[in-house]
Structures are given as C-alpha cells and as structure tokens.
Amino acid sequence: MRLRSTPLHEVVRAAGSTFQAIPPPNPQKAVKIERPMTSHEPASLPLNQVLTGDCREILPGLPEDSIDLIFADPPYNLQLEGELWRPNLTRVDGVDDDWDQFDSFTQYDQFTREWLTACRRVLKPTGTLWVIGSYHNIYRVGKILQDLQFWVLNDVVWVKANPMPNFRGVRYTNAHETLLWVQKEKGAQYTFNYHAMKGLNDDLQMRSDWYFPICTGGERIKDEDGEKAHPTQKPEALLYRVIMSSSNPDDVVLDPFFGTGTTGAVARKLHRHYIGIEIDEKYARLAQERVREVVQLEFDPPIYVTPNPRRRERVPFGTLVENGLLEPGQQLWFGSEGDLTATVHADGTLSFNGQRGSIHQIAKEIRGGPANGWKLWYYWDDLASQREVIDTLREAVRQESSKEI
C-alpha cells in the first residue's frame, strides 16, 4: 500500500496521549469565546486542534466513547489510469496523490475496516457518523459499516450543480456523490435537528437529495503557487448541513481525513468543537491557517439553537380554564372564519353537536382527519376586537411560567 503514514511513536504514546499537533487558533486572529467545558467533553480530548498523522494510529489514543459526531471523507480509490485531457487539449488536474492509491480492493477494504473500527471506538453510543464517497468506493464502505454493526439512518445524494464533464464521452457525467449517515448503536437516541433542517428548507421537510455546487472560486483553498491546494475539497454548505443537522453547540466533531479543514471551519462557525486528523503535513498547515481565520461570533443560544416544539413545556388546554384565560360556557370558533362553534366545559373538554372531547378530538371529528386543536380553535379577543387562535393563550402561559422560574 502506498498510503504514507507517520510512525506511531511520533504521533501517539499510550501513556499520556501525546499528540503531534498544530496549536489551536490564535486568539488574536479569531474571537476566542471562553465557555466552561461541559461534562460530556473529556478533559483529555485535544479540542480544536489538527493532529498530523494516520488516523488509524492517532484514534486509539483518544478516549473511548468521547466523540459526538464524525464526518469522514476518505480516499475514494479512484483507480485512475493515465492522464485525462479536455477537448481543448488542457490536462485535467485529477486525483493522483499517493493517499488515493491502493494495490487492490482487498487492501482498500482492510484500510476502510481499520479506520472505521477506530472511529467506532471513540464515537459515543449516542453518536453518529457521516461518510461520503463516489461509486468507486461507497458500496464497499457501506458493507463494511454494516459488518461493523453500524446502523444506517439515511443515504443522502449530493447532486452537484456544476459537475465535471465526462471528457471522453464514454459514460454519463458523474454528477453526484453519496453520503451515508449511520449511528453507532441501533435504537439509541441520537441528534437530529429536524426543525433546523425544516428552517433551512423554507419550512418543508428536508429531503435526502441535496443540491450544492462543487467547491470553486473564492472558497477554494489555494497553495503558495496559487493552485488549488486539495483536489477533493468539499463545499462549506455541505458540511454546514451535516453539522447543523447532527450535532449541537459544544459538541465534539471529529474528521479523520481533515484535508484543508472544511469541517473545522464550519464547526467553529456553528460553535462546535472540532478535532482534525490529517496525514499530509501540507494540508494540515493549510487547514490550521484556514480555521484560524474563522471569526467565531459570541455564542447566543437563540441564534444557534433551533427550538424544538416537542421539548417545550407541555400546557394542557385545561390550564387555560384553570387560570381564567377561558371560562366554562365560553364559545370557541372553529377557524378564523365561519360559524362553527364549540362550548368550553369546566373540565377542559369541548362539546359540539352532541359530542364531548378534547380540543383535538372535536377538531378531528369536524375535519374528518388528524387535527391540532391549538391551531384550529379561536376565541374572541375584546381588546383586538377579533378572533385569536387559542395557541396565543398557551404561549402566554409558557412565558409567565418561565418568568416564575
């Protein structure tokens, strides 16, 4: 195998967990926000650092069950043979680096099994892992993931808005890559910020086909010669969605193939900790320089945390009656317009057309299908001289309750 690696004794020592690491960002170049380390962050973790070496050798030195989220963009084993030329006779700068060269599928499979096994050890039981690949490798990676008892949550297709053409004209243009999202333990609780994803998608459920352009222009990291530094740099928008969906502020995000640091840059922007592992010293230096330039704004929970309605304080409809916000015998309208009304009872139920039940049951009978009574029943507001949805009363109770706390 031609994959270059740093000798184990130079990277990690079992006693003391000494890493060959690039220092964390310079506080003079970025706003450093000091916040107490939460209990789920082991003190021995090299947070916000780039560790130079082979991830298969470095990962055993990290604490077991310590990482919240892993994003991996491993070598694809593209198996390119010979040079590729465009129709205008310019050469395509493809992936021909040593780190993407393997002598056989067997060798690649062994490499994949080793790094995934090491990742599984450090991932928390509640943690998840994302891995991205192309048709060259993703099916082999997927099998090994399942062999190692990871549980597949989703496969996501990254549809490239501006893919590289198939210059030889002998195949379809390869216009997508596949991401596998898996959890460590089947059935365990894991992080999925469903409402944040809906917010990013104009209040529609986020689908598993994601449209992003490939990384070009100003976002593309250049080397000292002005050439693209890394052949497979991923767009920040892709990592933004992955990290936003699958982690929370203060979580630890690990990338075992850090490249030029896209994962770390996005993690800092979203107030997550990162740990990057990169075998190539040049890439590691470029990554640290990039992350150092990221300005991390002051943490403000309402800005970085999407409220989850399911986790909010439960307020039964009867609480509105108990607190005098609605009175027994009062009429509620079904909808902001129309004449259908129901009567409020002292026990917090409603009656309509001879039937008695909760705000949801009566609304379901009227609609003939699932119904959220909080959004469908209206009361008369004397101050506004109009109907108002009863959910506004529930919010008033919640706000008053939070003041008391």
Q: What is the H/E order?
A: HEEHEHEHEEHEHEHEHHHEEEEHHEEH
The percentage helix is 25-40%
The structural class is alpha/beta
Give the number of helices.
Answer: 13
CATH architecture of the largest domain: 3-Layer(aba) Sandwich
Q: Which percent band covers the strand fraction? A: 15-25%
> What are the segments in which pLDDT stays under 50 over at least 5 consecutive residues?
1-20, 25-40
Walkthrough of the structure:
By secondary structure, the protein is of the alpha/beta class. It folds into two domains: 8-309, Rossmann fold (3-Layer(aba) Sandwich), CATH 3.40.50.150; 312-404, no CATH class. The chain is built from 13 helices and 15 strands. The strands form two sheets. The protein has a nine-stranded mixed β-sheet with strand order 1-2-9-8-3-4-6-5-7, sandwiched between helices. It has a six-stranded antiparallel β-sheet with strand order 13-12-11-10-14-15. The longest helix has 18 residues, at 105-122. The protein starts with 7 loop residues before the first helix and ends with a helix.
Task: Give a short overview.
This protein is of the alpha/beta class.
List the helices and strands and how they pair.
Blueprint: H1 8-11, E1 21-22, E2 49-52, H2 55-58, E3 67-72, H3 105-122, E4 123-133, H4 138-147, E5 151-160, E6 176-183, H5 194-200, E7 209-212, H6 236-246, E8 252-255, H7 262-269, E9 273-278, H8 281-292, H9 301-304, H10 317-322, E10 331-334, E11 341-344, E12 350-352, E13 355-357, H11 359-367, H12 373-376, E14 377-381, E15 386-389, H13 391-404
Parallel strand pairs: 2-9, 3-4, 3-8, 5-7, 8-9
Antiparallel strand pairs: 1-2, 4-6, 5-6, 10-11, 10-14, 11-12, 12-13, 14-15
